[in-house]
Amino acid sequence: PALSYRQRIVGAAFCFVSGLLMLGSSLLSLTSLLLGSPGPFAVKYTLGNLLSICAIGFLVGWGNMCRLMCSRERRVASLIYLLSLCGTLLAVLRLQSQLLVTFAVLVQLGALAWSGASYLPFGQRTLRLCFKSV
């Protein structure tokens, strides 16, 4: 069903604030990550990212967001990002492997940067140049 403008704003605000709170609380779990227990950080960080995605969905509409994410220049980055979100939760909740959790979080960060850069003019090209120089 179609949402009214007010419902979209309320939904987006709720998801955005909840996502920020989750991301903020993941920073409080950073010490556990550094001490070799990445689970608490990874769950909070991933849920914060999922809530942020939901906020965008409320604002631009779910169909429009899916079309944007599936466009030619964003398709691979979006797929890797969504798979890394699922992979992080799978590694934490089911496999309980610290190495896989750490790897999934790193892939998630990289995919988020690459996907975000696709929305900026010359963003992915600039990232490629930065990585080549390193």
Brief overview, please?
May be involved in fusion of retrograde transport vesicles derived from an endocytic compartment with the Golgi complex. The chain has 134 residues and is an all-alpha fold. The protein has one domain (5-133).
How would you describe this structure in keywords?
7 helices; Vesicle_transpt_SFT2; about 130 residues; single chain; protein transport; mainly alpha; about 85% helix; about 0% strand
Notes on the protein architecture:
With 134 residues, this protein is mostly helical. The protein has one domain (5-133). Helix content is 83%, strand content 0%. It is built from seven helices and no strands. It has helices spanning 5-28, 30-34, 39-60, 62-69, 75-95, 98-117, 123-133. The longest helix has 24 residues, at 5-28. It starts with a helix and ends with a helix.
- End-to-end separation: 48 Å
In sequence order, what are the helices and strands, one letter per element? HHHHHHH
Structural class: mainly alpha
Sheet of most strands: none
Helix content: over 70%
What overall form do the CA principal axes indicate?
Answer: globular
Give the number of DSSP strands.
0
Oligomer: single chain
**Low-confidence segments:** none
Radius of gyration: 16 Å
Give the domain tally: 1
Distinct helical segment count? 7
Mean pLDDT over the full residue set: 86
Strand content: under 5%
